[in-house]
Specification:
Elements lengths: L1 E5 L2 E2 L2 E2 L3 H11 L2 E8 L9 E7 H4 L4 H15 L3 E5 L2 H14 L2 E10 L2 E6 L4 E5 L6 E5 L14 E5 L29 E5 L9 H10 L3 E4 L1 H5 L20 E5 L5 H7 L4 E6 L12 E4 L2 H13 L1
Parallel strand pairs: 1-4, 1-6, 4-5, 5-11, 6-10, 7-10, 12-13, 12-14, 14-15, 15-16
Antiparallel strand pairs: 2-3, 7-8, 8-9
Helix pairs in contact: 3-4, 5-8
Length: about 300
């Protein structure tokens, strides 16, 4: 099997998340080649072919031209699968490529089981196993689902792509800064997050008290935010804030991929969960198996002595 991996490039830099595409291909057992619209100096450090198109000519993002570049790479490489990150870039470009190829698309893949693809549904409460029924397939993978082990190493074999028709009705203008957040969890050294396991809205105050005792900020998982227990500005995860504190404490959080992707770069992770098999345990340095609403008040009392 061959996989063509579409890198992401922003503000003059290859995004590190592009290496997650390589981790996915390795897990799939696929031979891989990559596509980069960027500068040669920023080519991914991999052993293998990288199709390179000049960012100065084609822009950091232009869905019309980038689709043509990807289709040209597909023509040369003839891959079985074309893989994007599940990002704003991937959301826009992957369906265009799939439609041009008349290929099936699977979005937001979080795992591989027996060569088939695992995705979430019903707000990540359930999971399903799917596979396209077309000859070629277009995929997007969830950020954080396929981790890179160690520093990327290798020397790319560059093959340049030049479009004969580079005309486009679209023009890349630039990036608009995100609206300033009410709470900037990204700068906090300690984040203590409440999950659905805290039980009810009134119990969030206890988790906030632990955050205060540790000199940190209160965070939350998506289900807690969706339930209206905590404001969205404190949500951690792919649809909230990405954090990397020195200490991350997950209170009653099961560990959905979307949440883990938002906190996996924390230096030290403590998880408190009554389920010893909760997925959060896979990324925790310390897993406390206990009822969060019994353990946290005792911990606060100890910290205040």
């Amino acid at each position: 099997m061959k996989a063509l991996l579409i890198c992401e490039y922003r503000e003059g830099k290859l995004l590190d998340s592009s290496y997650e595409l390589a981790a996915f291909a390795d897990k799939l057992g696929a031979e891989k080649a990559m596509v980069l619209i960027g500068k040669e100096a920023e080519a991914p450090r991999v052993n293998g072919k990288v199709y390179l198109a000049d960012v100065a000519k084609y822009g950091e993002y232009n869905p019309d031209l980038h689709k043509k570049i990807v289709l040209e790479a597909i023509k040369r490489e003839n891959p079985d699968t074309i893989v994007f990150l599940h990002s704003s870039y991937g959301w826009d470009l992957a369906p265009r490529v799939a439609a041009a190829l008349k290929a099936g698309q699977v979005s937001e893949i979080i795992g591989i089981k027996e060569g088939k693809f695992e995705t979430g549904l019903c707000n990540a409460k359930l999971r399903r196993i799917v596979t396209p029924q077309t000859g070629k397939m277009v995929l997007t993978i969830q950020s954080g689902a396929f981790n890179v082990s160690g520093e990327p190493q290798g020397k790319a074999q560059i093959e340049k792509i030049e479009l004969t028709d580079a005309a486009s009705v679209m023009e890349f203008v630039g990036y608009e800064p995100a609206q300033k957040k009410e709470v900037d969890l990204a700068t906090a050294e300690v984040v203590v997050s409440a999950g659905r396991g805290v039980g009810k809205k009134e119990n969030v105050a206890t988790i906030a008290a632990l955050a205060k005792a540790l000199g940190g900020e209160l965070g939350a998982s998506r289900p807690v935010v969706d339930a209206g227990w905590v404001e969205h500005s404190r949500q951690v995860g792919t649809t909230g804030q990405i954090v990397s504190p020195k200490l991350y404490v997950a209170c009653g959080i099961s560990g959905a991929i979307q949440h883990v992707a938002g906190m996996k770069k924390s230096e030290f992770v403590v998880a408190i969960n009554k389920d010893k098999d909760a997925p959060i345990g896979e990324v925790a340095d310390v897993l406390v198996v206990a009822d969060v609403m019994q353990f946290v008040p005792a911990l606060i009392a100890k910290l205040q002595k």
